[in-house]
Amino acid sequence: MNKSLISEPYSLKNKSVTFKNRIVKSAMSEGMASEKYLPTNNLVRLYQAWAEGGAGLIISGNVMVDTKALGEPRNVVLENDDHIDLFKQWAEAGIKNNTHFWMQINHPGKQVLKGVVDEAVAPSAIPFEPDLQRFFPKCRALSPEEIEEIIQRFANTAKLAKTAGFTGVQIHAAHGYLISQFLSPRHNQREDKWGGPIENRFRFLSEIYHAIRARVGDDFPIGVKINSSDFMKAGFSEDDSHFVISELERLGIDLIEISGGTYEKAALFGKNAKPSTVKREAYFLDYAEKLKEKTGVPLVLTGGFRTPTAMNEALKTGATDFIGIARPMALYPDYPNQLLKEKVDDLSVKPIKTGLSFIDNKGLMEITWYSQQLERIGRGKSTKPSFSPLLSLIITLFKNGKEVFQKRRV
């Protein structure tokens, strides 16, 4: 079939930025930083493999804006220029092969696991549900002064990313991290200018965007990853999401990546997807179609795509402008090249199952198994798509003990 839509270039409006094709390597948490939260040789090697793999845009995993606010062990942190040369090496690897490389910048808020940081902060001192809260320390509400400081931290990290040679940044406002917490009426119950109606809950993200734009200039691309919905009662809704994206478009955002859910409700993994959704492959395609009726902002749709047919159909209908791919590229870093050369028709990824229901029902092996594949690429080795999840579990427990499952996320 004609795969020209996937291979077509795309230029951002009002920017001298052109992507060579419509394939985006979406962010995955690598967990490959040094003990000082810096890029390692293995991380550089991983991103060079992805750059050479043919995607038009690759987006890094979480880069945190504060060493005191880590989502998990071995996050990369960029808060000063003390080791900027290491970030320059990382950026240089990621832009090979005429590839754009954007840094995803983030603050976890209260979504920080026990033992990783000293304390958890949030818009409001509201715990997670008991089954989830046991993995997290008790959180406290941020003061207005701390909120302003975090806004400037985002701007500082974005400016440093530009200095290092990254070709853009993506603000992570999805998946239950701090910005997502501010957007959610479930987690943000403040009574000041940062809480209440969606106009106030959006203020934190809006101010972060303004602060970044002031530091990086008008020509540097800024994207946002945002939920279509939290899929939770009293959470961030589709109506809220439409409002936020419309406002971001008005402010001048360059690219929106659509995702959904949080770690309380993991729609981002396609769990409990409707049969119609599974057939069309993309988890959030219905939402994107409705959104495109209201906005002209360029969209990346990530989650579920496995065949060129579904990718091209989504592009053809105008529901999205880019196809985001994550887990398949943890197995096949050159998948975009194969796709563009019409050498692959389907890349269905089998669920990672050990046969142990108490492990499999919670999806504990998904992230660990894929992380092991990323580590292999980083060491210059081939991935093992057929690697036994049960053997992966045994190796993981032998090396790290059962607490490893409390310390890894995407």
Automatic annotation (TrEMBL):
Keywords: Flavoprotein, Oxidoreductase
One Pfam family matching this protein: Oxidored_FMN
Occurrences of domain NADH:flavin oxidoreductase/NADH oxidase N-terminal (ranges): 9-341
UniProt cross-references to InterPro entries, sorted A to Z: Aldolase_TIM (IPR013785), NADH_flavin_oxidoreductase (IPR051799), OxRdtase_FMN_N (IPR001155)
Entry superkingdom: Bacteria
Protein name, UniProt field: NADH:flavin oxidoreductase/NADH oxidase family protein
Provenance organism: Aquibacillus rhizosphaerae
Lineage: Bacteria, Bacillati, Bacillota, Bacilli, Bacillales
